[in-house]
């Protein structure tokens, strides 16, 4: 297994700077997730690690070897694409075994390894089908099988679940986590979905506009966001962020409080406001409150908390849950 | 359907049949007539069906020239098509997948190949210099050159519909550039390849003017040129001329009848699913 080290990676396309100096260590066996808004350069960074694209400058080490200028096949990586990218003219068996047959492995070895991978992913019954006769989830599994079978040191995933429906996605999240535990391989996973990042990652790398905002475990990012961007990006609904007086009282630029860390009351509290909008999620209810001094405040309350639009309400931040951030 | 629509439909069908089938019927009927009857050039049925006699007469004419012509045309068509399909697919792939600063120039050349009419005399001069004039392989190269632009454009637009992820997945799997093309892309080009092969082979097989210019000589005769040769000889034997036309028309016709569906499919097929 292998660690991945990125040193000062820059990338520009036609003079436009897309990545602006990325430094990153991914440890051996870690499940590392890159998150960030669309267009921040996640895929670009992953492609640079894979060797499909070259960095404009900077160095890449995989398993302590400098692979900055190595071909993809010499990097010990496998990649799963968002579009699955299965070869339409080959059966599932040949899709999974394609890399091995290119490497001129003996037939029976290929067969054995394909079967092992298929078993791990419950694809045994589908081995003789063509990709067009598979469902989206099955195709995704074939794509993962194609990665597993080569025994790579590092797995790269580019939004592998984003073409699946919500139910299947949460099932696959679990399967991927189990797979990671089973293979104990280093995995780098790109997503713009912070739920995927929170649920699967050992380490989250938050990217924004071509640079790393913060690196940490999911809970570190949740409890101790270092920048307003990370504070707003991690967690759902998004953290309430306010500039102005409240922040200045504490010597910060921005004051933040998560919706789930506000206590609501009809009698008394720190901020008084009017309920503008209510979203019932069943277990929870999300309340949008118009507060004179602040603006809109979003709070999460218990599902059976009885509120109506237009009524008055008080919100109080919980002790020790407030965030004071500088720009 | 309204009555009026039915009537219009029937009229259109009848017109269509008259327009398209009459020439064929005329060829077929004249081809089996006796020389005297054929000289009237009418649509009346022959009094005696002379299929076999006329057939053998045409085959045997000028020391079995038609058979030699079939052989030559087949060699030219097969040779040119193989070269054409493989090189057009490869060129289309490279210009679609690897944009470079040369692309504008290459496109200009391709469009020039489509639009600028070939100049016969300089081409003959060039062929002579290369010692390819009056040779079958010279003719093959001419046909490849004339068909290349159109085929490259067809391949290029089809390849554009194949997701680039497939190339990249193959590269990750360890494929060399030529393996990406031959193992992943080429198999997916089947529909468009069939279209190119059929359309171009009919064009090349039926070509009259190019062999006339670039392939003179009795030994180099191609099927369409047999008509030219026969026409003078058979001016009093319309039946044999039409039998010759019939024999020359048949192979492309069979191709079209059998592969009709594939041709249309290749023309319209786009994205590869899966
Ligand atoms: N080949 C390219 N040529 C020019 N610009 C590119 C190229 N590839 C990516 N970019 C630009 O780089 C930026 C980052 O793209 P990238 O695909 O890495 O974003 P991303 O973070 O993966 O976004 P998403 O979540 O939407 O997939 C975008 O602004 C994109 O337009
Ligand atoms: Mg992306």
Automatic annotation (TrEMBL), chain A:
Gene3D superfamilies: 2.40.50.100, Nucleic acid-binding proteins (2.40.50.140), P-loop containing nucleotide triphosphate hydrolases (3.40.50.300). One of its GO terms (cellular component) is ATP-binding cassette (ABC) transporter complex, substrate-binding subunit-containing. Residues 4-234 form the ABC transporter domain. One of its GO terms (molecular function) is ABC-type maltose transporter activity. Keywords: ATP-binding, Nucleotide-binding, Sugar transport, Transport. This is ATP-binding cassette domain-containing protein. The lineage of its organism: Bacteria, Pseudomonadati, Pseudomonadota, Gammaproteobacteria, Oceanospirillales.
TrEMBL record, chain B:
CDD domains: TM_PBP2 (cd06261). The keyword Cell membrane applies. GO terms for cellular component: plasma membrane. Residues 70-259 form the ABC transmembrane type-1 domain. The chain crosses the membrane at residues 64-93, 105-127, 139-159, 180-205, 240-259. It is found in: Cell membrane. PROSITE patterns: ABC_TM1 (PS50928). GO terms for biological process: transmembrane transport. It is a multi-pass membrane protein. It comes from the Bacteria. It holds the Pfam family BPD_transp_1. Belongs to the binding-protein-dependent transport system permease family. This is Carbohydrate ABC transporter permease.
